[in-house]
Design a protein that fits this description.
alpha/beta; Adenylosuccinate Synthetase, Chain A, domain 1; Adenylosuccinate Synthetase, subunit A, domain 2; Adenylosuccinate Synthetase, Chain A, domain 3; 10-stranded mixed β-sheet; globular; binds guanosine-5'-diphosphate; binds 6-O-phosphoryl inosine monophosphate; binds magnesium ion; Adenylosuccinate synthetase; Adenylosuccinate_synthetase; adenylosuccinate synthase activity
Length: 429
């Protein structure tokens, strides 16, 4: 298997960025295939921290980085991010960054609508990142999107603007907002167009060439399976498919290109935003894990909700996304706990479930069934070999492996790139 597809197997923030960066030096291209700048991927290299939202995590190691058609792209956010990362000493050119010319744009009107809807939603609030992700995907499917390639044809944008504004002006009126200022929008697009067009191309063609040459492609998922619009905790999800299969459709390669599917799994569970979370801890253990794990959103700075490891959810994610092996991250955050618990099933109205039911109300009522294990007082932080891990940490990892029915390929023991234990190389498997 020459290619590797990295996906989050929980509710996002599992540590995908760190693992993608670690694998990127052995890949010839890193490809983002869904999501947008709702993602926040953190890389720590020799003490220096990089926070990426839209740029693929390969960019820091200089690997060809591709933004595929499945992504929704906010061109102004991209320009800011490129400037920020360049100021940290990373060179970004049309040699190492390619953007699909059929990628739909996130416009200021999408961000407006995201905010207006959330404010109006009351108890039904999803807790989005407010980046306009949902409205942009709606416009893509509704065939009203302005795409990267349109930036080279702004003189003939009028019919598309008619269609886009007919839809948005009606919605905006409902929220008491003025209609879209078409002239201002066109001007903003004109101003940003040269920046984006520098990187724009039919990336499927570039990737086909890369593949033909026998090169290795690393696909970088955003969010996680439980935020998938079909398979996640609907409606408290994002608006794209986050599962591994999207790597193919979101980049323009066939389904056989996904290769080894590496599910990134945190050694406990976190979630940002609203929605069911069976193993959520609202006690001092949760507080402690949140503090030790620095569980604050990379994008919005919101405090992440924290809970015990949920093997039911991860087993389900691994099955749905065809995970070949997992990378278990942040095991060091559990250091020093007297006991650790793993959720092995749910009790719902007197019945035991070995999966998460589909309805949000049932999900919210699921009571976790826990299996307790002794913790470890030794440190795992910075361990780079399996033999360096305390016996009880090894038992915990082995138990997780059994319960989720999927092998552990990597273990991550700190935010630093090289504090990673390799058990099974996804590129040579
Ligand atoms: P992503 O969205 O999946 O890329 O994950 P985020 O970057 O949003 O969140 C993961 C956080 O955990 C980041 O701050 C990482 O630097 C950090 N991190 C990643 N792996 C480890 C690990 O093994 N141990 C610790 N302590 N932190 C880690
Ligand atoms: P990474 O790639 C964690 C969550 C939001 C909200 C829901 C919908 O860093 O793992 P959206 O703005 O997408 O419409 O919000 O999805 N969410 C994430 N949570 N990590 C992410 O990305 C997320 N991207 C979106 O908090 O609950
Ligand atoms: Mg994140």
């Amino acid at each position: 298997m020459a290619n590797v597809t990295v996906i989050g197997a929980q509710w996002g923030d599992e540590g995908k960025g760190k693992i993608v960066d670690w694998l990127a030096s052995r890949a010839d291209a890193v490809v983002r295939f869904q999501g947008g700048h709702n993602a926040g991927h953190t890389l720590v290299i020799d003490g220096k921290t990089y926070k990426l939202s839209l740029l693929p995590s390969g960019i820091v190691s200089g690997t060809l980085s591709v933004i595929g058609n499945g992504v929704v792209l906010d061109p102004w956010a991209l320009r800011d991010e490129v400037a920020k990362v360049e100021a940290q000493g990373v060179s970004i050119t049309d040699e190492n960054l390619a953007i699909a010319d059929n990628c739909p744009l996130i416009l200021p009107l999408h961000r407006d609508l995201d905010g207006l809807r959330e404010t109006a939603a009351g108890k039904g609030k999803i807790g989005t990142t407010g980046r306009g992700i949902g409205p942009a995907y709606e416009d893509k499917v509704g065939r009203r999107a302005i795409r990267v390639c349109d930036l080279a044809h702004l003189e003939s944008l009028e019919p598309q603007l008619d269609r886009l504004c007919a839809h948005h002006d009606a919605l905006r009126a409902g929220f008491g907002q003025p209609p879209v200022d078409r002239a201002a929008l066109l001007e903003e697009l004109r101003e940003i167009a040269p920046f984006v067009l520098r990187f724009a191309q039919p990336v499927w063609k570039r990737l086909k060439k890369v593949r033909r040459a026998g090169a290795k492609i690393l696909f970088e998922g955003a969010q996680g399976v439980l935020l998938d619009v079909d398979h996640g905790t609907y409606p408290f999800v994002t608006s794209s498919n986050t599962v591994s299969g999207t790597a193919a459709s979101g980049s323009g390669l066939g389904p056989n290109s996904t290769g080894f599917v590496l599910g990134i799994v945190k050694a406990y569970t976190t979630r940002v935003g609203s929605g069911p979370f069976p193993t959520e801890l609202e006690d001092e253990v949760g507080q402690r894990l949140g503090e030790r794990g620095h569980e604050f959103g990379t994008v919005t700075g919101r405090k992440r909700r924290v809970g015990w490891f949920d093997a039911v959810l991860v087993r389900q994610s691994c099955a749905i996304s065809g995970v070949t092996g997992i990378a278990l991250t942040k095991i060091d955050v559990l250091d020093g706990l007297e006991k650790v618990a793993i959720c092995t099933g749910y009790r719902l109205r007197g019945k035991v479930y070995d999966y998460l039911p589909s309805h949000a109300a049932d999900q919210a009522e699921c009571e976790p069934i826990y299996e307790e294990m002794p913790g470890w007082s030794e440190s795992t932080a910075g361990a780079r070999s399996y033999a360096d891990l305390p016996a009880n940490a090894i038992k915990y990892i082995q138990r997780i492996q059994e319960l989720i029915e999927c092998p552990v390929a990597l273990v991550s023991t700190s935010p630093e790139r090289d504090d990673t234990i390799l058990m099974r190389d996804p590129f040579v498997d």
